[in-house]
């Protein structure tokens, strides 16, 4: 689907942002997937190579992107310590869309409406596949290039997924 037929498809914005950052990437478009394993298979990568972009609320009007390998989840105590915050939360789907311009499941730091600081887990490495701004759209990039282009802080902020 393109932007004209699917109002949630913001892939053109994400791709333009990746190009503006000078990232070399491969675009993948696939149909609906129901699991991390299906998404990885559709993108031709291992589950750990899929990078989930999470929006975290630090305080009112203060959000961060956290890049999390597909086989891991945010370690809240580690992230709170890194940010020096006593409390962090995930914003509602509506609040995340308001900040990023992307619906949940399509969120990417590439082309976000608000230029949020990015934290990348230290395990985001090698070739990775990050969301491309629409369901079933992904960009495969070198993690080091992505982290550098986004000016991300790299830290240990995840634990193995339960």
Automatic annotation (TrEMBL):
It comes from Nocardioides aromaticivorans. It comes from the Bacteria. PANTHER family: CYTOPLASMIC PROTEIN (PTHR30411). GO terms for molecular function: aminoacyl-tRNA deacylase activity. It holds the Pfam family tRNA_edit. Residues 30-147 form the YbaK/aminoacyl-tRNA synthetase-associated domain. This is Cys-tRNA(Pro) deacylase.
